[in-house]
Amino acid sequence: MPLLNFRDPASADPRGERIRPGILFRSAQPDPVADAATVRELYTHGIRVIVDLRSPDERGDDDWAAAEEAGITVVRAPIVPDDTDAIAGPGIASLRTSADLGRFYADLAASAPTAVADAVRAAAGPGAALLHCAAGKDRTGLLVALLLELAGVSDDKIADDYVRTATALPEILAALATRHRIALNDGAVGDEGDGVAGRPAVPAPLLQAPREAIEVFLETMRARHGSAEAFLLGCGVEAAAIDGFRAKAAAEAVAEVVLPATAAAARRPALSVTAAPQPVFSATSSPSRPAGEPHS
What we know:
Layout: E1 24-27, H1 36-44, E2 47-52, H2 65-69, E3 73-76, H3 90-93, H4 98-110, H5 113-124, E4 128-132, H6 139-151, H7 155-163, H8 169-180, H9 211-225, H10 228-235, H11 239-250, E5 257-258, H12 263-266, E6 280-281
Helix pairs in contact: 4-9, 5-11, 6-7, 7-9
């Protein structure tokens, strides 16, 4: 099925003043796994690399198998809290307000420097990149916010992109509950639930996409580190990768990318819009191109 919460964050900057459409995408996890329709969606948007921010416990071995068989690179960069229980850990259990959630994002990013660096390097590479976690809201949201800030997008527009997840949350929460065989507060978005057995009491901010959360994240990150660039350099991201992402974001045109016509791809005619695989995708003909918690 199509990816939930799938979008191009550049739509928050519609005139492309700071980031060009078609280089960066975000979504929730594949549900239940990537199929031919999912891979076709990726190819249509020119996505060459997928950055999976989930922990090993959240991932399934076959989640992106179809994409990898079709020649798309999957980078696994797990961003997990210091307390690794995504639902019951004390760091999450203490969340009460949207501002708490924003500060939690800052702590979470700082606790996983290697994963953050791997994700940024992948986003800076050739072609379009898809970043996702479970819901495509928290870990994905903080990573996308860092990249947009790096490109010079204003906080208002970064927040505009973040809050768009709210419209997809009912579907996302239902999918998460089914996949993990739990009832998330009886499925009531914004309700803290009763915490009875089998029904984890998820803090309300985690079941929402409050504008204040991403604003506080950006403010906290700058207060602690100075800027997204300084934070990412501290995580081990090379200056060349930062410069590369900025250049990629600012580029007005991108050369055509030729996808490898692998035997696996040739055996999957459903991946193409027509009966046979079409290996060449142009950035000018589609929003981007292809190669290479559970937080809600």
